[in-house]
Every structure is written in structure tokens, then in C-alpha cells.
Amino acid sequence: MAKSKAKPKIDEKGLKKGQLRKLAALRNSLGLEIADEAFLKWMAGQADGTAADPTAERIAAALEPILDELRFPRGSSYVVRRGRGRVIVERVDG
After folding, report:
1. Would you say residue 3 has pLDDT above 60?
2. pLDDT tens track for 51-91
3. Residues 6+ apart with CB under 8 A from 87
4. How far apart are CA 26 and CA 39, in angstroms?
5. Which of 10, 14, 32, 62 is most buried, by CB atoms within 10 Å?
């Protein structure tokens, strides 16, 4: 009698759309057991999305002391860029 291997549990309802597509593609090409193992290894190697951009962290740290003095209207966007040794902040209309 063949041993039945315990297959890895993947909570498909907790996955995002792209992750579901990847899992489906793996299952179609590799088969159920191998695809589930490969998908779990791939998920373990993925970043959890909490890693922030170091530049964004530095900008936020520089603006934090003056946040009480600033006023950001709702729905407005700004672009921060460098130019000729200074920082240029422009409002984006759109």
C-alpha cells in the first residue's frame, strides 16, 4: 500500500491575486504536490512588504520636526527632487 504524503496547506483565500496566479501556473505545469512545495519555498523568500525605502525614511525623518507647522490639504500631492544643490518641492496637479 502506498504511503500518502501530507500535502502542505496553502490558505488560498489569504493570497493576493498575483500569488494565486503564480500558484495556479505552478500547479498546471508541475503538478499539485511539487507545485505546492515550490510555491511555499517561493513565498518564504518573498519580502513581507514592510521594508521601507531608505530615502523615504530619511525624508520623513527630516520633515518630522516641522510637521506641526506644515499644512497638507486633502488630496494634494507633492514631488520632491534635487536640483543644483537644493531640494525642490512642487505641487502636482492632477
Report:
1. no
2. 678 888 888 888 888 888 888 778 888 888 888 888 888 88
3. 80, 81
4. 8
5. 10
* 71 domain-assigned: no
Going by pLDDT thresholds of 50, 70 and 90, the confidence category of residue 6 is low
Percent of the chain at pLDDT above 70?
Answer: 85
Where do runs of H (alpha helix) occur along the chain? 17-30, 32-45, 54-63
Three-state DSSP state, 49: coil
Distance of CA 39 to the CA centre of its chain: 17
Rounded to whole angstroms, the Cα distance separating 85 from 56 reads: 19
In a domain, 20, yes or no: yes
- For residues 16 and 24, the answer to whether their CB atoms sit within 8 Å is no
Q: Which domain holds residue 20?
A: 12-45
Q: From 30, 39, 33, select the one nearest 11 (Cα to Cα).
A: 39
